[in-house]
Amino acid sequence: MPQPQEVTDPIPPNWWRSRTTPVPPAGYAEMIDAARELQDRIAAAVPDEHAATEAAIGIKRVADLLARFERDEWSQISGFSADLPGRGSTLLPLVRDVVMDDKSVRGRVRFGRFHLGGNGAAHGGTIPLVFDDLLGRLSGSGGRTVARTAYLHVDYRSITPVEKDLDIEAWFVSEEGRKRILRGTLRDGATLCAEAEGLFVQLRPGQH
């Protein structure tokens, strides 16, 4: 009787080197947009028994369909495609209208119903998520090598509303050796909702 073969994880490329992200196929961006909408609809919905059952069947059908196309981390599109809004991630609140150079970045972010904490305000944990992503993205701009977040400090100044376009920006404060300090703000018009400071440290070869 043949023995089952041992399954091992693929050996990842060196983390600090550029990965090769597959080109998103036609329809991929629309799939991600639909998934973002689904998250908001699920969060807002109070379905009856029939609708909940039908939804579960439909979502499971999609999950089973996509399971046949799963790849390892180093070959996935979601979260790594520079050609897609939000790099194709359904986790992040989407930052649009991005204007960026190697010292600063600004854009518009919208927290959906999926990100609701309560009473019309975004969940407090989703705000550091956006800052970490945006500051981290800027920290690796301009040909800089990969860096990891060493710390991220967020001050909450006012309620951050959901389902509303907000202004977000970030900029470099200093660069010294492997250390990069950046700051950012999140505003609802003239109201400062939150501000952040992050330290990002350039990885050495072999670090993860």
Descriptive notes:
The protein is α+β, with helices and mostly antiparallel strands. It has a domain at 92-202: Thiol Ester Dehydrase, Chain A (Roll). It has helices at 28-44, 49-67, 126-139; strands at residues 94-100, 104-110, 116-118, 121-122, 147-156, 165-176, 179-188, 191-202. Strand 7 and strand 8 form a beta hairpin. The chain is globular, with a radius of gyration of 20 Å. Mean pLDDT is 91; it is low at 1-9.
Write a compact overview of the structure shown.
With about 210 residues, this protein is an alpha+beta fold.
Distinctive features:
single chain, 208 residues, Thiol Ester Dehydrase, Chain A, six-stranded antiparallel β-sheet, alpha+beta
Structural class: alpha+beta
| Order of the strands making up the biggest sheet | 1-2-6-7-8-5
CATH architectural designation of the domain at 92-202:
Roll
H/E series, N to C?
HHEEEEHEEEE
CATH homologous superfamily label of the domain at 92-202: Hotdog Thioesterase
Number of helices: 3
Poorly predicted runs are 1-9
Mind describing the biggest β-sheet? 6 strands, antiparallel
Overall residue-averaged pLDDT value: 91
Q: How much helicity do the residues have?
A: 10-25%
CATH class of the domain at 92-202: Alpha Beta
- Beta-strand segment tally: 8
Span of the ends, CA to CA: 41 Å
